[in-house]
Target: GMC oxidoreductase
Amino acid sequence: MKDFLVIGAGSAGCVLAAELVRRGAGSVLLLEAGPSDRHPLVQTPMGLIWVMGSKRDWCFTSTPQKAAGNREIKVPRGRMVGGSGSINSMVWFRGRRDDFDNWNVPGWSYEEVAPAFEAVEAALKPSRLATPHPLTTGLSSVFPETPPTPETESSGVFAYNLVGGRRNSAARAMNLGKLVELRTDAHVDRLLWDGDKAVGAVLVDGSEIRVSKGVVLSAGSVASPGILMRSGVGPKGDLEKLGIDCREGAPEVGENLHDHPGVGLHFEGAGSGYGLEAAQWLNWALAPFKYALSRTGPFASPTVEGGMFFNARGVDQAPDVQSHFIPFHLAHMGPRFQKKSGYFADVCLCRPKSRGRFSLASKDPKAAPLIDLGLLKDPDDLETLAAGLERLRGLLQAADFGTRRAPEVYPSAAVKGDALKEHIRANCGTAYHPVGTLRLGGPVSERLSVRGVENLWVADASIMPSVTSANTNAPSMMIGWKGAEFIAEDAA
Ligand SMILES: Cc1cc2nc3c(=O)[nH]c(=O)nc-3n(C[C@H](O)[C@H](O)[C@H](O)COP(=O)(O)OP(=O)(O)OC[C@H]3O[C@@H](n4cnc5c(N)ncnc54)[C@H](O)[C@@H]3O)c2cc1C
Model:
């Protein structure tokens, strides 16, 4: 029998599992619902455009979002070893120092999380993208003083957890194979209990796994609260309606769900970004060979290559929006792949005010959950996005795009004011950074244990009280590392 069971081999789970063993806390069995990450498209940066929507993506959708045109929004989540960190664009940001200070949770100030970031970065080796498209390079002239950071207005090429032009996910970087027993295709339904103690898990196929020291939920912001609820920990009324015995009433489980809302501008013109226009056909034919031989060309691009942080209204040096820049033609209507060239830039809110809620539709672990992102529920979010898009247009004029500059075709520069807000309601999505459903200080203690039960911890993006101001992969790994630190001490 192993000492610990870690559920979910994603960004946080891989770091946590490896670090628990490295610290001598005990042996670990790591369960992953999906398959391995051994697939060339997972390792190739541009491959993510095909991996999204494949069997390695949970392909969730939100509930209809009332303030966003009643649309159901895509919620992709990685379903393989490496989790969402095996499907993502690999953009690397810690977040802003005061993101962590503002959490106001003992043990989680920036000073206290910085060593965990340093440890994770020693393994993941993030670095600035080696061969960005010339359009992305041109972004640095918008705020020439500072490379991109959420701390201040800044622009340019982002940093990535890519090593040798290949994805360096937590699964790859943490030497998992040597440290933990990893079981793929192991979809967990619910936890096993001995009194108030978590002692293992029941898989969807009915098999049971028991461990001696405890269980860690690292299944991500969408799955971790679902497993907890199916195990009888959650809002009592909701559980009873679904026929689940409530062992611990925890009204906040699933609350506080939020993500970075985002909406973009599409630019289109011959000779601008990567695209399937006739002039680039030869390049595309050679692209796989170029990538194989020199790790350059479009296949070496993680699609998002850089961007900016800025203040939407231009009134402060403190950014309240992030822009992701993709030097590829993204179709805004019609077929996905078109014989055109272009580029795309979005605006995402760093600190959205809207909150949604995660709940179960059924106790069947295979049933899709109810993911209410609460998109644009708070009117301030819409106002800031609209201001941000207007300012983005002006800032892009200062980018050194040279002859590659192309006109905005969607929604088009003429769409402003109320029409732009209407456009946002009809098109807003998210940056795929859901967090908050098991927040620190709520259902989960500052040392990551689940309140009201024993030998059960959570370590993944779900514990963030509020989302960090930039992309969430590095913070999720930091949480995995901190989790190992706490659990190794507390389970001893
Ligand atoms: C398409 C996409 C692009 C993104 N781009 C970026 C980016 O460029 N930079 C960035 O910083 N962030 C990015 N993110 C977000 C970032 O990847 C996530 O915030 C981070 O990976 C979350 O880590 P986690 O450990 O909380 O969850 P995950 O990494 O999602 O891990 C959860 C794991 O648990 C497994 N699991 C779920 N349910 C069960 C179950 N019942 N039984 C067993 N296993 C289960 C899942 O299959 C998964 O492997 C992106 C996300 C997506 C989806």
Notes: Residues 95 and 468 are 5 Å apart (CA to CA). The chain has 14 helices and 26 strands.
